[in-house]
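Here is the promised in-class demo. Please do not try to memorize the tokens; focus on the logic of going from shape to residues.
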């Protein structure tokens, strides 16, 4: 077997494999690369010794059986026996479901999560979007502090566990998307700087030195990240990747890393003969993120739309702190703008940033499915002090209205696990750092942040307390009880309507029409022959729809429109109408 490693600042590299040592040679063609041939099979443990230092794991390790600081293990990617052929499932028409392996079930494993995939198939979603699964210190965490970006977290089930999960998802007709983090690595167990200039002080990020995308040595760093991304799609039969916080990728080169990545993914899709896609998380409100490369864009296939979330959140809750402030001034106007123009900040002033922000979307050329719409995400729930979901403070009727706006709206919908039944379990910030100093620093930092916003220390969950993670696990008995069962049935009905009515997957943003009455607290929009009306107020509402059609689905008792097409909606309720 050929072992290879990039270590350009090292004079000597030794491969340590199953107790034996092999001196590695300079690659004659690739500067900075070292290679060695050695006998090794699936599961063989190995590491690299740089200039007589300690044994380090492989930067391209596919498995870390003993955690990020332990030896790497060889993975034979051809050994897994896939049971279900998969021709892929593209993004147009999709409904995504964001899922965290460690809290989707109390067991917190791929196999336990796979056993629940029948629920998602019955719900009607098309893709599971997994939060990061790369190794991190300890057992439980969000996954955004991973340090071995080619490997799979062993407590979840390792590489084979992920493959079993994906194979089971395919058996249910579900695609799988994986959240990957290119903008930083975790603070503990990160050995990349020992090997070479993977990071640079040229730029600084909230996590310290930036990943080296444009300084000397960046060609190899970009190739490292790009090859890892393609390996996830190829070796694990994934359908797409969600790219965490691409606005934090400091990259001044003329050809950006994101353009390189999107081109490589498109080429791999052609080679494999199945659709593949990239979804960006970006706070830039820049439509060029998803504009084609030959038209001057980055060529990514979709991006999260936090502006729609913020408008919806303020309309539902009345919250106005932080970045919600601009949306809260007139939530219904903000919601109408995001439904029709995607971004609220499209060159407008952002009081949160203290400057103008964003750029308009060309509605005549940008298909609606390139933007994801959602009422809740791991970020928007978990970054709250108590990790409280909307269900903790809103009535079932308002949750039903949120579902109607997300699942019948113009954007590719995404649900956060448990949202479909109005889960009351919180989703809190939890860690399992093995370094006591780091654990205390994280605990103190979070405490400081929220005490500054008026919380008391006693109110705040301890990220390191195992009970914080346990509280965040879904309660699978809830869907069997009311009002959860009714909310689950409502989500199933809305997703079925989206699947069955072409109006609801029409990519034409310019065709959507919105009306609202902020005083009466109702909003309605039309997509083709389908109308959606929500009453977020505490009083009944009358909405004149003209030729309103018949009621296809409603939360609460709603009669057919009366004379003149007037629809009467009870408080905190909604309806979908069509011909």
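The designed amino acids, position by position:
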């Amino acid at each position: 077997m050929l072992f290879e490693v990039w270590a350009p600042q090292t004079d000597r590299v030794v491969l340590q494999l199953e107790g034996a040592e092999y001196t590695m040679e300079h690659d004659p063609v690739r500067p900075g690369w070292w290679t060695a041939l050695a006998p090794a099979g699936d599961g063989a443990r190995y590491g690299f010794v740089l200039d007589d230092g300690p044994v380090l794991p492989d930067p391209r390790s596919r498995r870390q059986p003993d955690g990020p600081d332990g030896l790497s293990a060889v993975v034979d990617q051809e050994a897994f026996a896939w049971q279900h052929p998969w021709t892929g499932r593209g993004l147009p028409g999709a409904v995504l479901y964001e899922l965290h392996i460690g809290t989707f079930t109390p067991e917190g494993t791929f196999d336990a999560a796979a056993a629940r995939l029948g629920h998602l198939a019955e719900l009607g979603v098309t893709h599971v979007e997994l939060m990061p699964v790369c190794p991190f210190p300890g057992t439980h965490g969000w996954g955004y502090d991973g340090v071995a970006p080619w490997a799979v977290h062993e407590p979840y089930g390792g590489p084979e566990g992920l493959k079993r999960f994906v194979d089971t998802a395919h058996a249910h007709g579900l695609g799988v998307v994986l959240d990957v983090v290119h903008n930083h690595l975790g603070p503990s167990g990160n050995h990349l700087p020992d090997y070479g200039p993977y990071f640079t002080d040229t730029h600084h990020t909230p996590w310290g030195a930036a990943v080296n995308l444009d300084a000397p040595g960046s060609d190899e760093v970009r190739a490292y990240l790009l090859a890892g991304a393609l390996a996830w799609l190829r070796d694990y039969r994934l359908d797409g990747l969600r790219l965490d916080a691409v606005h934090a990728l400091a990259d001044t080169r003329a050809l950006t890393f994101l353009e390189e990545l999107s081109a490589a993914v498109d080429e791999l899709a052609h080679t494999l003969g199945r659709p593949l896609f990239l979804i960006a998380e970006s706070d830039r409100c820049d439509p060029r993120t998803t504009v084609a490369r030959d038209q001057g864009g980055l060529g990514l296939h979709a991006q999260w739309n936090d502006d729609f979330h913020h408008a919806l959140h303020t309309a539902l809750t009345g919250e106005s702190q932080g970045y919600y402030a601009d949306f809260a001034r007139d939530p219904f106007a903000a919601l109408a703008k995001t439904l029709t123009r995607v971004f609220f900040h499209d060159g407008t002033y952002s009081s949160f940033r203290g400057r103008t922000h964003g750029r308009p979307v060309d509605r005549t050329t940008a298909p609606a499915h390139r933007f994801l719409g959602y009422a809740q995400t791991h970020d928007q729930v978990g970054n709250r002090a108590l990790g409280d979901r909307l269900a903790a403070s809103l009535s079932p009727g308002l949750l039903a209205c949120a579902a109607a706006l997300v699942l019948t709206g113009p954007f590719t919908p995404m649900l956060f696990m448990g949202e479909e039944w109005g889960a009351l379990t919180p989703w809190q910030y939890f860690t399992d750092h093995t370094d006591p100093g780091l654990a205390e620093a994280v605990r103190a930092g979070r405490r400081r942040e929220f005490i500054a916003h008026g919380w008391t220390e006693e109110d705040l969950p301890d990220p390191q307390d195992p009970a914080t993670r346990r509280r965040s696990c879904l309660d699978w008995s809830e869907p069997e009880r009311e009002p959860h069962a009714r909310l689950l049935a409502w989500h199933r009905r809305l997703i079925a309507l989206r699947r069955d009515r072409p109006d609801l997957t029409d990519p034409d943003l310019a065709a959507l029409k919105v009306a609202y009455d902020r005083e009466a607290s109702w909003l309605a929009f039309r997509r083709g022959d389908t109308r959606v009306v929500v009453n977020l107020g505490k009083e009944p509402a009358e909405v004149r729809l003209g030729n309103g059609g018949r009621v296809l689905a409603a939360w609460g008792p709603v009669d057919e429109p009366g004379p003149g097409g007037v629809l009467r909606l009870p408080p905190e309720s909604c309806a979908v109408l069509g011909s």
